[in-house]
Design goal:
The structure is a single chain. By secondary structure, the protein is an alpha/beta fold. It has two domains: 177 residues, Quinone Oxidoreductase, Chain A, domain 1 (Alpha-Beta Complex); 124 residues, 3-Layer(aba) Sandwich (Rossmann fold), CATH 3.40.50. The protein is built from eight helices and 16 strands. Strand 15, helix 8 and strand 16 form a beta-alpha-beta unit. It binds NADP nicotinamide-adenine-dinucleotide phosphate.
Amino acid sequence: MSRAIRIHSTGGPDALTLDRVDAERPGAGQALVQNRAAGVNFIDLHQRAGRYPLPALPATLGMEGAGVVEAVGPGVTAVRPGDRVAYVMGGHGATPGAYADFALVPADALILLPAEIDDVTAAGMTLKGLTAHYLVKSAFPVRPGQTILVHAAAGGVGLLLTQMAKLIGARVIGTVGSDAKGRLAAEHGCDHVIDYSHEDVARRVRALTGGEGVPVVYDAVGRDTFAASLDSLAVRGTLVSFGTASGPTPPFNIFELNPRGSLYVTSAGLAWYTRSRHELMERASDLIGWVATGQVKVPVLQQWPLEQAREAHMALEARQTSGMSALTL
Ligand SMILES: NC(=O)c1ccc[n+]([C@@H]2O[C@H](COP(=O)([O-])OP(=O)(O)OC[C@H]3O[C@@H](n4cnc5c(N)ncnc54)[C@H](OP(=O)(O)O)[C@@H]3O)[C@@H](O)[C@H]2O)c1
C-alpha cells in the first residue's frame, strides 16, 4: 500500500484525505513514476472545490510531479526504469494523481530531467513554466522592446512569465498584493510594480506608457482585474485571460472591444498549447535549458511534506504564498 492525497467529495481543504491505496501496474503507453515532489497549483484548488469537475471520485489530486520511473507498460520506449522525469497531467487524457507516492502517467507526457535540476525545482517549474512559455511565445508572442502587464507577478506563473519576458527583451509591469511580493517580483526582473490592493492599475499603466497602454495583459486573477485589464490595453491590444484566482470574469458584451480600440481577448489553456509530444518537448527543452543555465530561477519558497497538503491548499488560497509551492515525498 502507498500514500495518496485524495478527495472523496468536493469541498474546502478538509476534503483532502491521506489514504492508503494499492499500487497500480502501468498499462500500454504508461509509466509508473515514484514521485519525489509534487507541484501545488491553483488548478488543484479548483478541482478540489469542484469548480473544475473531475471525471470520477474518489480522485488523487496533483497535476504536476517529479520523480523516478519505477516501471513501464507495453510499448513504452522513450523512458526506462530509473530515469528521472517530470510531468504535467491532464493535457494527454490523464486525470490528476501527483499527490501520491506513485502516479501512472502517459509516457508521452514524461520529460527527462538533467542532473542540474533537482526534484523540487522540477515539481515547481514544469506546469507553471510550460504555461509561462506558451503565454509569452504563442498566446501573444512578446517582442523585444514591448511593455507588457502581468497580474499576480509574484506568483508561480507570474515570476516565470516575468523572467521569460525579460529574456525576450520586454519591459514588464507587474501587479502584486503586498510590498513583500513587490520586492520579490522586482528581484525577478519586474521593471515596475503596482500594488493592486490600493493602486489604480489602468491609470498607472497609462502613466508608464505615455498614455498608450500595453499591447498585452496576462491575467489569471480574473474577476478582480478584468476591468482594469481591458482599461490598460493599447489600441488592438490583447487580453490573455488564463485563470480566475479571484473568481470568474464577469459576463461582458463583445461589442465593448470595439470602442476601446478593436481589442482582442483569448481564454487560454496549457493543454491547447501542448497538444502533441513534439510541441510539449519544444517548450520543455527551452524551459529546461533556461533553468539549467540559471537564466530562469525557480524559487520554490513553500514546501510541505505530502501529509500536509491541506496546509498547502490553505496557504495558496489565502494568498500567503509567493513563487512556487511543492509537496515533498
Ligand atoms: N490556463 C492555464 O494554462 C493555466 C496554467 C497554470 C496556471 N493557471 C492559472 O494561473 C494562475 C496562477 O497560478 P499559480 O499556481 O502560479 O498560482 P499563484 O500565482 O502562485 O497564486 C495565485 C495568486 O493570485 C493572486 N490573487 C489575486 N486574487 C486572489 C484571490 N482572491 N485568491 C487567491 N489568490 C489571488 C495572489 O497574488 P497577490 O497576493 O499578489 O494578489 C496569489 O498569490 C491561477 O489562476 C491558475 O489557475 C492557468
